[in-house]
């Protein structure tokens, strides 16, 4: 079990990443390539990724160079997921390159001791070898993550809307209580179980950065070194992928002002009651319309206590972004 211990000050310093963390997404996407767990949620990405890696000639690089550094195990080096990754891929890779040699050597030694690693990893303390690593990470990101960035960002923005709504109505404790089934808030401790090891992390006024992740599956992940700025990577919810056709009954049923109003309300996150108020209908009627929108894959609904919060899916966001065609 992993436990974060909060002080009153830490409760005021809980943040949610505003953008996908490029280096963490690289790390956990490499984990997805190493297991069939949750494969249904990533089926289309997995097919596209394997094909893209073959086209780019990166198969061997991933297998022999990247996977040994990102094993799907209890540990991989913290320097590979620096906090600068929330500022984008370039900033994250610059931070990897700038990591002090002695820290890299210590973390690689820990990797060898706890998980096992090829002998060449001992050279990562050399700048030249880290430059090769940065090049491989950039190529991998460009092949299998960059094509999906818009989708990932939309999911993250929907998650932030959900958190903003919760924070407004129930405060930080409500936000911490709804992070996921393996995360439990027992004030003043945030517990993550199961977890690969047993660890207590006093936040001691540093706060906690929450990083929603598209490729993280089921189990949240934290940095191994408790002395680093505390972060918790946790998985976004996934729904089974389904193929929708423009002529299917759910999408035909979307025509009309009431559902359009409810869809627009979901762009910033809304409960059924709030959506009903926005559309000028009763909550019972709004509940019927949200069910249709959800069945069509345009909104996702998350229950918290006695309320249900509706947010846009990537498909719903794309529909709202469509501009009328100008004829003539």
Series of secondary-structure elements, N-terminal to C-terminal: EHEHHHHHHHEEEEEEHHEHHEEH
Terminal CA distance reads: 64 Å
The shape, in one word, is globular
The chain-level mean pLDDT equals: 86
Structural class: alpha/beta
Strand proportion: 5-15%
Task: Characterize the main sheet.
Answer: 4 strands, mixed
> What level of helicity do the residues show?
40-55%
**How many strand segments?**
11
Low-confidence stretches: 239-252, 323-328
Give me the side-by-side strand order of the main sheet: 3-4-1-5
Keywords:
single chain, 328 residues, alpha/beta, four-stranded mixed sheet
Summarize this entry quickly.
This protein is of the alpha/beta class.
Task: Give structural notes.
This protein is an alpha/beta fold and 328 residues long. 45% of the residues lie in helices and 14% in strands. The protein contains 13 helices and eleven strands. The protein has a four-stranded mixed beta sheet. The protein has a four-stranded mixed beta sheet with strand order 2-6-8-7. A three-stranded antiparallel beta sheet has the order 9-11-10, sandwiched between helices. A hairpin with an 8-residue loop joins strand 7 and strand 8. Helix 4 crosses helix 7, helix 5 runs antiparallel to helix 7 and helix 11 crosses helix 12. The longest helix is centred in the middle third of the chain and has 29 residues. It starts with a strand and ends in a 7-residue tail after the last helix. The C terminus is likely disordered.
